[in-house]
Design goal:
Chain lengths: 721, 721
């Protein structure tokens, strides 16, 4: 690089004079008053008019084109580099880095998690995420981060709704909607003491350590406040098509997918006034923003070029449809951030898209559990609950034959609630949500279940990160599933060898939004009429507040694959008599459903009360606030039985519904079952769990719990699941 | 860091004198003759006696301990750093980096792939891998790299067997066996023109770009030839237990899991002589090496300390049982290479093992397909076949409704043959291998299959990288599966939306090692006696060279889960008569097996010949060199039918065996099936495939192919798989 300090300094001085003059002419000194901090401390406000110190001539096209064509790191705004190469010094070891992201809705919440995974993979610093979210994203991300327990990551939430009035007056045509515009109000929305922040769009992926990006703050001159990468398309040149009228920008303008913000300086410079005035003025002649906040940032920068520090292009490699990014990445040995800034996202036409997609897929499918890794070098406050968890885990004895059970019980699974778009059901007093849990090998049940149950469902899925993506594609490819907005899918990420069946049920149960829930299992198909019939029965019987009852849905099973589902109780009874159907587990474990009294059910015209007995595990409809499942039962065995014991102990009436039924379909035994049923220690461990369950039961219910003791001391049938 | 150039130079000069003297006393000038290259070019050999220029005092304990305790980058051998920080300059852009790895057997082959994945993930340079392998590893890795098609990676293989005589005379107690010692002979085994190489153990994982490691060659003085990280345990201090007598080493010695070798200098310095003499001498008083090559490297270095350049500890963070590595990694912000150098590997006791395990699991489970990414910046020769593949893919029309089929057909799947330890069956003239393919959802069939088929099997598994690990654990946890060494599992890595059923069959078929194969499907269980019966029948009938025949194994099915498998044809016929069993697809698609003529089979006492008819798809036993399956049939449909057409076109006799049978067990339809059967374009695309198949058939068999035309023009039954 040629030495150019002297001529630039002269040129800058000349430009400064020119711009000061212009500034006075245009604004009469009203705007751009910056409070300078002599010696780094807040001093007496020293005000000078007009735009800040310009480092870039307003028409810098030629030089910017050179930056795109050649040296990927050097824009014309870069100050002279030292001989040590293009790397700025790393930020102080263990410095807390702040990142702000605006995120709204189900789909963006999934996107942001991929971004966060890529960031965490490479980071070596503690991070503080500032998330501006709508209610949907907040519910998802709060649960996710709470259960993710990543060390050295703090998360703060900000209400997007409260920021809406500040930007809703701006007409906007960009697909990001109102939320894109919210980046403009971050200087006032984020805490006043926060001086610097990296602002990211949800559609970027890191391919490097974010501290290298943070380190670029050190390149800012005393007056620069916004770090941006040049736009890698010709959009702002205004010659894409006839009558294409983009917002004003310096040359190609800047892309706002990745921003370094000196919040302190922006606040001092009167940023809020600044962008509003610019936007209002431009909107006199332009109908709306096309690219949301980016149009306004560019218009402000065109007026105040001294605000901007150009970042090396590798920090925002833009994969829009007609991107010029190749000029950047074909020279750079090191891509830092990839930006999927086409509405087509991964389906964008780009001859190298496979290359970039591989980066994205890496983190999309990456096991987020692996990011729960300490930063040894930077001791930090452990995430809430992490210390107790560590202690509990440390107390386990690896030689204990039930070690795997104990460990699995303590495992905190990462949970992504409402993984896919979901519309909560309208509030209806007797509505029922079907609650169940499944893993990948039962996905093919979902379509049939949707046909049998037209009402809301809350389903917990036990998946790896990669499987969650397969699941997403599965739903998108199924017209039956894609049409249903009332089915909420909650992904619980796999961890550990035992299936956490009751933890899954509790996740699905906690997310049910109707007053009643039907606690089912995924391999059962309910009678076509069951949803309507249950709502009618709930209304008639009055569950819940004034009657603590559990409505029993009698369970049947078929051993055949091809099977014509009965449309009525009459048809069902015919099949039962023909030997095509059986009562559930009739051959292996009749005790599980014996108290339902199938003989009485055949004749029954009205609901009838039955008594609890050992091993009873009917499928029931209960109020949403029913007792939770006991999460100590992991793997297979006693998980539902214990729940019914708890219902009985809490004096729920058990009422069998005369027209209700549900039918179990055959399936190959799951891997989890076959793995553990054959294990000789399995039953011993299950007995230990049952003993502990009974101790807790006695603690809560006193002598009343004695009733359950014999049931708890029976050996477990090996064939049960 | 204090300036210490002057005192060190003085100390080094004094030491040099001392060592020159010692060298003369010990070797009389025979050894350590180095050919120096004045001005970097090979000149007249300038010989000087004794060890090379020492940079480290022979007893450097104190200073080395300081290195372990403090600055993670700086060992006492480091030359002064510039002010630019600890990073050496990167190697010239696009420089080809050479890596040598010794790898033998099934388990090490799996390990080395994880290492290679981590290396490829971070690398930005073209790589040349030099793999010293036994026959097993070579077969695995050659197939793997050939099908992996990673751009800018070249692989050369070297025969470990040929190197054995050079090291087999050394008694060795280390778990790496003879292969560990082979690192010693790399200077002569690798091509003479190769000057520098990074040597890696199979149990290391990269957490950074290997070019940074390569760049450390620049730190070598003119005489240094071996770059090593200090040993992070007290082993070589010789005080671990009473009478603990390790091999001689400088202080803590060095770990040889990661080595930078200047092969040129070692060759010139007479390395081969050097290490042999040292080893022979030490073996006079020591019974064997305990740590294989590492003992010998350390003994040589103790004698010739000038050979060694100390590398920063982060380049070989050693997780042995009583490691001192924490002193290194707790200070370093950046770990570069993790070394699982305990025989316990991931189960090593280390309070931070979770942290390191997460790195390892990242690459263990990483989708290797994502590493097929170009190095834009460094244009390179594409891997063999890649260019044609790219062209073929580029010619596909994304708007073609059968685009997914076309793309899937062209997909080259990464293949890992004999994923688990496997003993080839002893050569027997009439032996039969059961050939089948499966994905994760059929894993639970394997145990039953092993009980039914006591002979060799060759099974292709269609899995993701993460599923391959689950599969590994599944086999390890099953006593039935773990006991079988004659079952070869070949992992074909998933890519694309359609199940490549015939490609999988061909992988399994190609790996069968017996003269005959039984072409089965995973959801069938053969009669218990079938393996013996087939071998006897093959002997009697004389398949293969003098009789081109396909032996038909009649197929049946049960629709019931719980089912008692018949032990004889008599029992089978009784179940058939009782309606518990049916002939296969009796209800949905009797044409598929009608030509088998079940009525005749009931009575048959001897094999009988049957004629091909449309849609016939029996399960057959054929010689191993039978026609391959047509890989164009992806997804479900016509995949077996086409194979039988090909057999018939090649004039194989179809002989039904009177005592043979196999029974299909029920299972839920796989996801792949349900996804595509419902698609309306699916049948159209299948018809297009059939048309193309027939064109090829006509091309090969001429007018004889006309016979099959009507069959190919029939619509496909929707219920078939």
């Amino acid at each position: 690089m040629l030495p150019r300090g002297r001529p630039r300094a002269l040129g800058a001085a000349a430009l400064l004079l020119l711009l000061l003059l212009l500034g006075f002419l245009l604004f009469g000194g009203d705007l751009g008053c910056e409070r300078r901090e002599p010696g780094g401390r807040a001093g007496a406000p020293g005000c000078f008019p007009g735009p800040l110190m310009p480092r870039v001539p307003p028409d810098g096209r030629l030089r910017r084109a050179a930056a795109l064509d050649g040296d990927p790191g050097a824009g014309p705004g870069d100050h002279n580099r030292s001989d040590c190469g293009p790397q700025p010094p790393p930020p102080p070891k263990c410095e807390l880095l702040h990142v702000a992201i605006v995120c709204a809705g189900h789909n963006s919440s999934r996107d942001v998690i991929t971004l966060v995974k890529s960031m965490l993979f490479y980071r070596k610093n503690p991070l503080h995420l500032h998330l501006v979210t709508d209610a949907v994203a907040r519910n998802i991300l709060e649960t996710l981060f709470h259960t993710w327990m990543v060390p050295a990551v703090r998360v703060s939430f900000y209400h997007a709704d409260q920021l809406k009035p500040q930007v809703s007056w701006i007409p906007n045509k960009h697909y990001s909607g109102l939320y894109g515009l919210m980046k403009l109000v971050l200087p006032s929305a984020l805490p006043a003491e926060l001086a610097r922040v990296i602002v990211l769009d949800t559609d970027v992926t890191f391919a490097s350590d974010i501290s290298e990006l943070w380190a670029l703050f050190a390149h800012f001159s005393d007056t620069q406040a916004i770090g941006l990468v040049e736009n890698q398309s010709d959009w702002y040149l205004g010659n894409l098509w006839k009558n294409h009228r983009p917002w004003p920008a310096l040359g190609r303008g800047f892309n706002t997918g990745v921003i370094l913000l000196r919040l302190d300086r922006l606040r001092q410079a009167g940023w809020e006034q600044m962008w509003r005035l610019t936007a209002r003025r431009e909107l006199l002649s332009l109908p709306a923003t096309s690219l949301a906040d980016q149009d306004i940032f560019n218009a402000v920068i065109k007026e105040h070029p001294g605000l901007v520090q150009r970042l090396p292009c590798v920090w925002n490699v833009q994969l829009s449809d007609h991107t010029l990014a190749e000029r950047c990445y074909s020279e750079a040995s090191d891509l830092k951030v990839i930006h999927w800034n086409s509405p087509k996202k991964l389906r964008v036409k780009n001859k190298h898209v496979e290359f970039f997609r591989n980066f994205y897929l890496t983190f999309l499918e990456y096991d987020g559990n692996l990011l729960r890794r300490e930063l040894f070098v930077c001791p930090s406050q452990p995430p809430p609950g992490a210390e107790q968890l560590q202690q509990a885990l440390a107390q386990l004895d690896e030689e204990d034959p039930c070690f795997e059970f104990r460990q699995q019980q303590l495992t905190v699974h990462r949970v992504h609630v409402t993984f896919l778009p979901h519309e909560p059901p309208p509030p209806r007093p007797h509505d029922v949500t079907l609650v169940a849990q499944l893993s990948m090998d039962r996905l093919q049940m979902l379509e049939a279940l949707c046909r049998h149950w037209p009402g809301p469902m809350s389903l917990a899925l036990y998946l790896t990160d990669a499987e969650a993506q397969q699941f997403l594609h599965f739903v998108e490819a199924s017209p039956v599933l894609a049409a249903r907005q009332d089915v909420a899918y909650h992904v619980v990420y796999r961890e550990g060898p035992l299936y956490p069946v009751n933890q899954l049920r509790n996740v699905a149960l906690a997310q049910a939004l109707t007053p009643y829930v039907f606690l089912s299992d995924i391999d059962f198909l309910p009678a076509y009429s069951l949803y309507d019939y249950l709502r009618a029965s709930i209304e008639q019987l009055g569950l819940g507040s004034w009657r603590k009852a559990a409505l029993v849905v009698p369970a049947f099973e078929t051993l055949r694959y091809r099977f014509s589902f009965p449309h009525s109780k009459v048809e069902l009874l015919a099949l039962l008599d023909a030997g095509t159907l059986y009562t559930f587990r009739y051959h292996e474990w009749p005790r599980g459903h014996a108290p339902t009294d199938y003989a009485r059910w055949r004749e029954a015209q009205a609901p009838y009360r039955v008594q609890w007995a050992a091993d009873y595990e009917p499928y029931v409809v209960v109020p949403r606030d029913c007792p939770r499942y006991d999460p100590r039962f992991v793997g297979f065995g006693w998980n539902k039985v214990a729940h019914i014991v708890e219902l009985d102990a809490q004096e729920y009436e058990l009422l069998v519904l005369p027209e209700a039924f549900t039918i179990h379909l055959p399936h190959a035994p799951s891997l989890d079952i076959s793995r553990f049923r054959s294990s000789p220690t399995y039953r011993d461990c299950l007995q230990a769990l049952k003993d502990e369950f009974h101790q807790d039961l006695s603690r809560h219910h006193g002598a009343a719990a004695l009733k359950y003791l014999p049931a708890l001391q029976q050996p477990q049938s090996p064939a049960r699941g």
